[in-house]
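Students often ask why we bother encoding 3D structure as a string. The short answer is that it lets us treat folding as translation between two languages. Here is a chain of 258 residues written in the first language.
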Amino acid sequence: MNDSVLLGAIGAVGGAVVGRFLNGWIVRLPESDSAKPGSRCPKCGHQPRWMDKVPILSWLRLGGRCRVCRHPMHRFEPLVELAMAVLWAGMAVHFGCTLEALGGAVFGTLLTGIVMTDARVQIIPDEFSLGGLVLGLLFAAVMGGPAATDALRGAAVGFGPLWLIGGLASWLLKKDALGGGDPKMMAMVGAFLGWQGALLTIFLGALTGTLVFAPLRLFSKREVLIPFGVFLAIGAATTYLVGPEILAWYRGYLGVAP
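And here it is in the second language, the structure alphabet:
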């Protein structure tokens, strides 16, 4: 068997398992600040057996319902597990069996968790932001040299601007203007992407959020809640994938040497 195929298969299986755990965190962390207790039906309290915990396949076999009371499960569960399988397989194939592959897969997993929780309940759990910050710094420390320094700078640059802007806006508007989870999330992003990546993520997130929600604000009389973490995650993913190319283009546009 081709090495890349084998790595992709291993990554896919591992990613699907990670997705299974991630689903539990997405549902339980915003509600109880803990991943415990384990999975159970919200209606009858049935705890699934091992055969009902196989990623993707168990959801399909049960028709997306509890085995006992047939209460519907969350529809996003198989999609998250499939997305993690694709993500981890892609990282394994692209980078091989390396620390960079693991770091990219972990970063993508954290962003997925943030997107799901912020979109559902407008909360970014500290387990994803602060826990991810620790992981990002650890990855950089293992790599050593400039990577460790850049991760620290990135965390500071990611956290600082949003914290200052949020504090100033809250003081001017006399109400919370920016969720407390957003600066902590950007500290995590900066630890993985460095200070330039953090700034680009903020710019792309703000641009995407404005393009999506500005028309809604203009034409809707109701107050529209903006899950800014979702757009920051989109900006972070874009920066991870094509950030160097965007920065190189911008430097060329300004006539600045790389």
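Translate back mentally: The chain has eight helices and no strands. Keep this in mind for the problem set.
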